[in-house]
Amino acid sequence: MKIYKMKDYEQMSRKAAGIILAQVISRPDSVLGLATGSTPIGLYDQLVKWYESGDLDFKEVKTVNLDEYRGLTRENDQSYYYFMHQHLFHRVNICPENVHLPDGMAEDGEAECRRYEALIDSLGGADLQLLGIGHNGHIGFNEPDRYFAKETHCVKLQESTIEANKRFFASAEEVPRYAYTMGIGTIMKARKILIVANGAGKAEIVKKAFFGPVTPEVPASILQMHPDVTLVGDEEALALI
Ligand code: PGA
Question: Could you say which of 139, 176, 179, 232 has the lowest number of CB atoms within 10 Å?
Answer without folding.
Answer: 176
